[in-house]
Amino acid sequence: MRVAKEVRDDRTVLSVQEDRIDAHNSGELKDVVLKTLEGGARNVVIDLARVQFIDSSGLGALLSGYKNANLRSISFALAGLQPRVRSMFELTRLHRVFDIYPSLQLALSA
Amino acid sequence: MCETAVNLDIVVPNETRYLRFVGAIAEQLAKELDIQEDKRDTLAFHLNLALTEAVANAIQYSSSANAKDSVRICLSVKDAYLSVRVFDHGGGFDLAAVPTPDLDELRERGRGIFFIRSVMDSVQYRKTESGNVLEMRKKIA
Hints:
Distance between the termini of chain B: 7 Å
Shape of chain A: globular
Distance between the termini of chain A: 28 Å
CATH architecture of chain B: 2-Layer Sandwich
CATH topology of chain A: Transcription Regulator spoIIAA
CATH class of chain A: Alpha Beta
Number of helices of chain A: 4
Largest sheet of chain B: 5 strands, antiparallel
Structural class of chain B: alpha+beta
Radius of gyration of chain B: 15 Å
CATH architecture of chain A: 2-Layer Sandwich
Number of domains of chain B: 1
Order of helices and strands of chain B: EHHEEHEE
Shape of chain B: globular
CATH class of chain B: Alpha Beta
Oligomer: heterodimer
Number of strands of chain A: 7
Strand order of the largest sheet of chain A: 1-2-4-6-7
Strand order of the largest sheet of chain B: 1-2-3-5-4
Helix content of chain B: 25-40%
CATH topology of chain B: Heat Shock Protein 90
CATH superfamily of chain B: Histidine kinase-like ATPase, C-terminal domain
Structural class of chain A: alpha/beta
Order of helices and strands of chain A: EEEHEEHEHEH
């Protein structure tokens, strides 16, 4: 799982560099997110603009991050969901749970 | 709809790195079907999703003592129906006992079968002498 980490002002941006998140790499994504949360980040944005496909395990990895961030009072947002990825959040109603922005730029200016 | 039957028989190692491969095959099959273009892309996505979830389950539930097992997948198109069968050699599970997840609960697991049921018309799981098979069907015309 290739994830680019970048700190912009007070935001930590994790940009997923894969076009697909499934049971093969979702565990790694979960670990990267948890390590970032444990490392003292206060505002985390996950940029999913490159991701064209996500399965149930990928949603689980992002939920793990969301719940862990909530416990630590860290803001946690998603950005750049492609149509197929967005549809998975809508099917599971998770689009009502996550803070979701159409693009990374909009997430950073929020 | 092309009246010629299509049958694909695929065997891959019991490893999650092949999920991308089988998902891509499913997408490609959908793109070859003689159906409306807007429906074709949705079908391709749904087949990719259903097969990814089913094969991931088959890998997860396979006996760890047989880590070198393979997963067999049969895709067929006939009489306006697309059928996907995924065979595993694990202990099996009771599909009827898999609950519809409470979407208000933020559980990290338990949505795979829900996705399969959501995008396919019918799902069955049978235990046979030669292993278990998850069969998913979808009308394509």
